[in-house]
Amino acid sequence: MAEPTHRTILRLLDLLLHLAHLAVILFSALGWLVPSARPLHLGLQGLILFSWFGLGSFKGWTYCFLTDLHWRVKQALRRPERTDSYVKVLVDRFSGGDADPIAVNRYTVTVFFVTTLLSLVLLVHDRLLQG
Question: What is the CA radius of gyration of the chain?
Answer without folding.
Answer: 17
